[in-house]
Amino acid sequence: MTRFNACIDLHNGQVKQIVGGSLTDTDPDSLRTNFVSKESPAYYGQLYKKHNITRAHVIKLGPNNDAAAIEALASWPGGLQVGGGISVENAQEWIDLGANKVIITSYLFPDAKFSLDRLKRLSETVGKEKLVVDVRRKDNKWIVAMNKWQTMTDMEVNKETLDMLSQYCSEFLVHAADVEGLCKGIDQELVRKLGEWVTIPTTYAGGGNNISDLELVDRLSNGKVDLTFGSALDIFGGSSVKFDDCVEWNSKH
């Protein structure tokens, strides 16, 4: 059964909701921000803990976010996942700081080419059960994007690649970068395919704009894919999805 999973997106040390495709290193002025929170990262961590929203992910979007991420993790030790700049050198450190799991994308793609050796090393370092692979879909072929969705890699998202990755991780986080932050609806075909392909817990993020999307994802994926709301959620300045309704959904399902 599909459940609601939460997020804490960090940019320059603040909790924000941004349009995924607008985040670039070359043109900072192109950044489109939907919401900047007045609340601290710890506020959201404590909120998720209160309502037992497990598997919530803290994502560091660029530099100057480590302190904010550490604050979030400290608010619910062992309850939150963390991603952004994770590598074999620092993964265990983030686990020690309180992360339930670490989330990885860019490290697996040196020069935008997938490295199975890096995945194996990371899985061996922290353990398969502590590793989440973030598969960031972009463009019509569902190609994995890295480096804050700016760089296309050589990996296509399909059953074969997900089966291979699942040998070394315990969970997938799938960002549909083309619709991230736009609140114009989920990528239904991708969700349907994920329901056919995945064999481990999987969370989809991108475009959710109505509480009914939980039921839609449940139907499309046969209950195998969970959903994260971002910019549409009232706790992130949105108006179309209430956090309390998401909590209620989880309690009933």
Give a verbal description of the structure:
It is a single chain. The protein is of the alpha/beta class and 253 residues long. It is 29% helix and 25% strand. It has helices at residues 41-50, 66-75, 91-96, 116-126, 159-165, 188-197, 212-221, 243-252; strands at residues 4-5, 7-11, 14-18, 33-36, 56-60, 80-83, 99-104, 131-138, 143-146, 151-156, 171-176, 202-205, 225-228. The longest helix is centred in the middle third of the chain and has 11 residues, at 116-126. It is globular and about 45 Å long. Belongs to the HisA/HisF family. One of its GO terms (biological process) is L-histidine biosynthetic process.
Task: Output the keywords.
253 residues, alpha/beta, 13-stranded mixed β-sheet, 8 helices, 29% helix, EC 5.3.1.16, Aldolase_TIM, cytoplasm, 1-(5-phosphoribosyl)-5-[(5-phosphoribosylamino)methylideneamino] imidazole-4-carboxamide isomerase, 1-(5-phosphoribosyl)-5-[(5-phosphoribosylamino)methylideneamino]imidazole-4-carboxamide isomerase activity
Question: Summary?
Answer:
The protein is an alpha/beta fold and 253 residues long. It has helices spanning 41-50, 66-75, 91-96, 116-126, 159-165, 188-197, 212-221, 243-252; strands at residues 4-5, 7-11, 14-18, 33-36, 56-60, 80-83, 99-104, 131-138, 143-146, 151-156, 171-176, 202-205, 225-228. Strands 1, 2, 3, 4, 5, 6, 7, 8, 9, 10, 11, 12 and 13 form a 13-stranded mixed beta sheet that branches.
Largest beta-sheet characterization: 13 strands, mixed
Give the SSE order as H and E letters: EEEEHEHEHEHEEEHEHEHEH
Cα-to-Cα separation, first versus last residue: 7 Å
- Measured as a percent range, the helix fraction is 25-40%
Instruction: Kindly state the number of beta strands.
Output: 13
So what's the oligomer here? Answer: single chain
Number of helices: 8
The pLDDT mean sits at 90
Residue share in β-strands? 15-25%
Structural class designation: alpha/beta
Which shape, going by the Cα principal axes?
globular
Rg on CA atoms, Å: 16 Å
User: Which stretches are poorly predicted, pLDDT < 50 over at least 5 residues?
Assistant: none
